[in-house]
Structures are given as C-alpha cells and as structure tokens.
C-alpha cells in the first residue's frame, strides 16, 4: 500500500450530520456546554510594578481583551485592546506605563508582538512581519524600554535573538543562528539581561551547551550530550555568575535541581533537591532579595519544596486564609509587598485575590466562573494500574458527581496530546462537561509521558500504535476489571497525539470502543513527518529516533499508521480539525474522512477555517462540544 494517500485540504464539514448530532445532545442538564466553555468574565489578573493598577482579560465581542483599572479607586476600567478575530494569547506589564501582548491569526501560531500604553494610547505592532513567529527570551525586568525576543525572520527554521525597543519597534540583532544543521534551540540571559548561554543541535541528535563570560566574546562549547540527556539552565547564581542552577538528569534517571559550573562544564556541589518518583524541573527566586525561594514538581498533584523561610511563611499565611484550595502566586510588585493570588482545585477555576504583605490583608478581586457551583463538579481521583509488561501507569479517573459505588457506567478514554507531555490534576472543563453528562473519564500517563524519568520516556520510542497504545488498552481493561466501566459503552477521545491514539484504538482494537472522537489527530506517520512546521525541521533526526524513520523504519511506521489500514475501522467516528493547524496538517484528518467516505462510511467531519491546533474561539468550542455530546449520546447513551 502507498504511504501517501491523496489529500484534499478543502473537504468541507458535513453540516447536516453535525446539526443532527447537536440536536441529540441532552438539554435537560443543570449546566450547558456554554456554561463550561464561555469566556471568563475576568481572568489573567496582573498587578503593575509599583502597585498602582490592576490589569486583566475580559471578553469584548466574545474575544479576550486587556483591561486596566486603578487600584484603590472607583474609576472605570480602560479597555486597551479591541481584538474581534482572536483572543489575546498572553500579556505582561513592561514598566508602569506600557503593556506587551501577543496574538496569532486564526490559530496559525505565528505569534506577533504588540505594545500599548496603560491608558490605551500609542498602540504599536512591534513585529509586523508576515509568517514570522516570536518568542520572549528575556523581559528585561530592569530595562523599561527593551525586551529580548527570538524571531525566525531570516529563516523560518531558525530563531535568532533581538533586542527590541517597545516604544519604536527598533530592533538590534544580538547573535546569528544561520545553520539548520547546527541550529541553536535556546538562548538565555543572566540577571543583567546579557546573552550568556545558548544550546544548539549537533549531528541531529546531540545537544551542545555553549557559554560566554561577556557579550563581546564568542560562545564556547562546554558540554555535549545526547538529546536523551538534559541539562536545562534555569537561572544564574546571584553571587558567582559562572554558576547556574539547572535541572539535570546527567548520569541518573530523574531530573534533579543542582548547580552547574559553566567554566568547568560540569555539575558542582550537592544535589539541591530530587524526588525518587518524578522529575524536578522548576525553581523560583525572589528578584528583590536575590535568593532561590522554592522548587516545584508534580506527583499526583503539584508540590512545592521551599528553600526560603520567608517565602514558605507567605504560603502558610495564605493557605490558612484560603483553606481547602490550591494557592498560587500569580503576579507581584517590584518591592514584593503586594501579590495577585489565585486559588483553584480540580472542581473550580477559583478566585483572584489581592494580598498586602505588610497589612497581612487579603482582598477578593473576582471569581473566574461564578456561574459554576463547585459542589456540583466531579473530583479527579489519582489512580494507577499495571500495563501488561509490568510497567506502572499513573493517571486520573473522573466519575460523575452522583456516581454510585459499584455501578458500571459509560466511560470516555481520554489520552493526552504531546505525546511527550502529561496529564495534571486540576480543573478541566472537558472533564466536567463529560461528567455532567453521566460519563466517567480515564486519563492515563502512558509510557512516554514526561515527568516520570528518562527510562519511562524512552520506553515510548518508536512505539506509536504499539506499547504506547497497549498502555491505553490496558487502562480500559483495568476499568472493566475494577467494575467502573460498562464494557459495551466505552468511547475514546483525544486531541493531537491523543487524536492519533483515538484512531489507533479503533484501528488496532476495533472491538474495544463503541465510538471515537479524533480532534486534530495524526493519521499517517509518513505524511505527518513531512508536514511538520519549519521550526521543527532542525530536530527531525530526534523525531526519527522517537517516532521512526520513514525509510529505515518503514514497515513499523506503516503498521502504526491508521490511514493505511482504513479497512479495519468499523467504529463510529467523529473527526474535528482546524484548517490552519501548523502542527498536525489538515490533510491528516482529510485522509481518514476521504478514505472512509470512499467506503460509503458517513463520517461526521467538523472543520473550522479560522482555527489551528485546537479551537480557541468560543462559538467554535460551543459547536464542537455540543456535537461531541450528541455523538456520545447516540452511541453510549448516558
């Protein structure tokens, strides 16, 4: 069979079939799809550097835009942006008078950078370049006029660092990145905003850490590792600027926090923190006091190890006032006297508060989704089971809030995307929607999920559709054996790699699932590897090791490509795709739909031409999730 099926990137949605499915969605529930997926009334709060203003995102014509209001006054908020096509993706204060934000177009992920004054004046697009993607390298906290960004302006495969003036848009290139075969993947500055560290790819699969003492020097290679090993610089030491804190798995299975001597090119001192079960990748510090403060990691839930008594006491104070919820610091003034605090749990998006450290005073700002009652939401239960080869798989089981112990219910299996990511504990509107409809949901961190060490990650290499899929299948069997699942009413739904796992599930275990929903999923490993974004291409050799090489691993990749085994698919399937998806080309969905239609199988196909790798606009989300609910009701009941 040919590796390349004829693609057609303009297959339309079959609107009539989608409309019929939406009509089947249960309407007698307390909460609607809109309740779970409408934009928060106010979210993403930040405080200005001197504490005079609060900023936040709020819907304007159904899109999240930026607003600012004075702190401690009754003055009306000022709307800074008026986007109607797409949400503002992210923003930050830059000094006391200017705000920086990014947005893309139609989900293409070519993020552009904008700046606007805090009174709404002097709006400027700082990077007005077509088909160029920007990254923030350093916000230059102590420089009121500049940022350091990365842009693939000169070569779509390569990002180069620039210092950009936030009032004029003037840019100065700081270093070159010209060779895709020796691509620099990361740039890092010190606490003074000087470009001191870079990491490049060598020979396709090696990673080279480079360093210089001064910006007028050339970078020197100080450490070469295989890409399976990682030494990830986090931030420089505050006293000795040839030392850097890193998350490293050199010579070990799990990442730990340790210092690294850039002059000697090796780890130095004792391990600062490690965990026997999971990787430790994150560390925070106080800009004001110039000390490391805490280390964050995730087991079943997010955990914190404190290094600094002052930061630990702050957490104790906040948790005593906000008991029963997770408490996170979101934003702070320069003098660290005021913080934006957010609460959350697995059953609520929580609340924003303003905390005055000196007064020990907590003031409520806004609930994120006050129309949802936490008591009605379903808890996420951490679980684990054994795969058929003895590997332990961790995950989460969400059961309807009214679940009666011992009852067998319809279940949705929900593998995550990535696949080199992981499920986390916390509020998820998809889980809550499905639970409200009477479905249980199992999310598993199958082999290859990150955070569980190098060995667990490497177990996934070249195992798409094989042992990675077995972990998902074994999760279904575990649910049946434990008495949760009605074996005749199990569905599978996932996005991105989860969409691939959905297609693999109904291709290679067709009797296991009553129906399936593929959301922006890979269907053909050969065409997927040919259509990755240009900025992924310097890392294709790594992808070949992790997924498979089209020539050397031809048979294995063909065996794992659902689009090449279309005759095996008999399970009812819903396919959903964004036309502008830069990661999983629309042809991946078109292939499956076109091939099934050629066999006279009517596949409901929902395409949105103003979306990319997942739907962001709420009207598209509403249509998708209503279609999902109708589709599940048709084949699973509730």
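^ structure tokens above, recovered residues below v
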């Amino acid at each position: 069979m040919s590796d390349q099926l004829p693609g057609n990137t303009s297959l339309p949605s079959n609107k009539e079939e989608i409309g019929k499915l939406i009509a089947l969605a249960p309407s007698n529930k307390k909460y609607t799809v809109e309740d779970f997926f409408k934009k928060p009334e106010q979210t993403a709060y930040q405080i200005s550097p001197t504490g005079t203003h609060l900023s936040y995102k709020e819907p304007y014509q159904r899109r999240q835009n930026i607003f600012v209001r004075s702190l401690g006054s009754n003055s009306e908020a000022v709307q800074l942006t008026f986007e109607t096509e797409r949400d503002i993706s992210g923003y930050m204060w830059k000094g006391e008078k200017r705000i920086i934000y990014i947005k893309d177009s139609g989900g293409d992920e070519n993020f552009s950078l904008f700046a606007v004054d805090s009174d709404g004046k002097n709006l400027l697009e700082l990077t007005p370049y077509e088909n160029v993607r920007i990254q923030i390298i350093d916000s230059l906290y102590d420089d009121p006029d500049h940022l350091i960004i990365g842009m693939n302006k000169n070569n779509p495969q390569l990002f180069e660092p620039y210092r950009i003036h936030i009032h004029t848009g003037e840019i100065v290139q700081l270093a070159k990145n010209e060779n895709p075969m020796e691509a620099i993947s990361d740039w890092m500055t010190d606490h003074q905003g000087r470009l001191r560290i870079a990491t490049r790819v060598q020979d396709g699969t090696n990673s080279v850490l480079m360093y210089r003492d001064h910006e007028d020097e050339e970078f020197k290679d100080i450490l070469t590792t295989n890409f399976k090993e990682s030494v990830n610089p986090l931030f420089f030491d505050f006293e000795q600027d040839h030392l850097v804190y890193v998350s490293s798995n050199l010579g070990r299975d799990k990442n730990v926090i340790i210092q690294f001597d850039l002059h000697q090119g090796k780890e130095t001192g004792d391990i600062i923190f490690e965990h026997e079960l999971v990787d430790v990748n994150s560390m925070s510090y106080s800009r004001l006091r110039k000390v490391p403060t805490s280390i964050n990691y995730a087991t079943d839930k997010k955990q914190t190890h404190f290094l600094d008594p002052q930061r630990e006491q702050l957490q104790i104070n906040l948790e005593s006032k906000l008991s029963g919820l997770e408490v996170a610091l979101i934003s702070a003034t320069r003098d660290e006297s005021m913080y934006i605090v957010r609460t959350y749990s697995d059953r609520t998006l929580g609340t924003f508060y303003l905390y005055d450290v000196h007064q020990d005073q907590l003031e409520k700002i806004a609930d994120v989704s006050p129309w949802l009652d936490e008591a009605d939401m379903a808890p996420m239960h951490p679980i684990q089971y054994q795969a058929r080869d003895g590997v332990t798989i961790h995950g989460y089981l969400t059961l309807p809030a009214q679940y009666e112990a011992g009852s067998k219910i319809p279940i949705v299996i929900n593998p995550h995307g990535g696949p080199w990511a992981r499920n986390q504990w916390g509020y998820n509107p998809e889980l809550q929607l499905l639970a409200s409809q009477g479905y249980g949901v199992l999310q598993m961190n199958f082999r290859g999920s990150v955070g569980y060490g190098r060995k667990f990650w490497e177990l996934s290499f070249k195992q798409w559709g094989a042992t990675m899929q077995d972990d998902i299948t074994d999760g279904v069997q575990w649910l049946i054996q434990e008495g949760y699942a009605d074996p005749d009413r199990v569905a599978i739904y996932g996005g991105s790699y989860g969409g691939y796992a959905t297609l693999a599930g109904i291709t290679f275990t067709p009797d296991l699932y009553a129906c399936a929903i593929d959301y922006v999923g890979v269907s053909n490993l050969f065409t997927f590897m040919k259509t990755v974004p240009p900025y992924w291409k310097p890392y294709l050799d790594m992808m070949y090791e992790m997924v498979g090489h089209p020539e050397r691993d031809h048979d294995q990749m063909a065996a794992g490509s659902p689009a090449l085994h279309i005759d095996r698919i008999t399970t009812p399937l819903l396919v959903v795709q964004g036309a502008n998806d830069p990661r999983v080309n629309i042809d991946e969905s078109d292939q499956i739909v076109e091939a099934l239609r050629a066999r006279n199988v009517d596949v409901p196909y929902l395409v949105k031409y103003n979306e990319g790798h997942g739907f962001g606009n709420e009207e598209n989300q509403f249509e998708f999730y209503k279609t999902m609910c109708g589709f599940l009701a048709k084949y699973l009941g509730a």
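The mean pLDDT is 95.
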